[in-house]
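pasting for the record
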Amino acid sequence: MSGTVSTSPRPQVQARPRDAAALILVDRSGSHNRVLLGRRAAGHVFMPDLYVFPGGRRDPRDHALAFSRDLHASVAGKLAASSRAGINVRALALAAVRELEEETSLVLGGQGCKGGNAGNAADLSCLRFIARAITPPGHVRRYDTRFFLAFTDEAGVDPSDIRDSEELTDLRWLDIADVSCLNIPDITRIILNDVVGLLEVDPSLRFDVPVPFYVVRNGRFVRNVL
């Protein structure tokens, strides 16, 4: 052996997407639909200082959290059909509700799912499955995120009860059709545009709406429908 050290670059190991969930909360009590967004802390590795929907990674314990009413059959069916075998799709919805409570203090159904006991049971029946998106390769952290939507009036949520947290600050209710004043990720803007279009067609937003799936394949941004 010559004793020389190869300088050939090592192939980069891509981060494996982790299951995550986000909740698009819509307030339709006024003349314009409003959506809740908050700013991620500057210290976050993933999307620092950007405004996003409440949400985060699915926790291994989320499947055990209590719920008072289950997902609509159409929502559960689409989640199952678009997920890998063996995944607990209800846990994805419970993760979204838990993250909402932890990041904004808002609770679906006037109750909470934190702690997983019978007195803190989440109401999942008002959730729509709106979109799925996988973080493109090249990011330090990647997530396979399911985006849910709920209306505040159906969920028993008082929009004025929001409180900033360590995870999300500067929480704001904004006109869903105009969030141009905020620095938001491209995928957040894309999904908001999808929601605006859906609400224009059907303000009640049925539970079996087509679900777009956003992913990068071979360097191309692809939109499929689940």
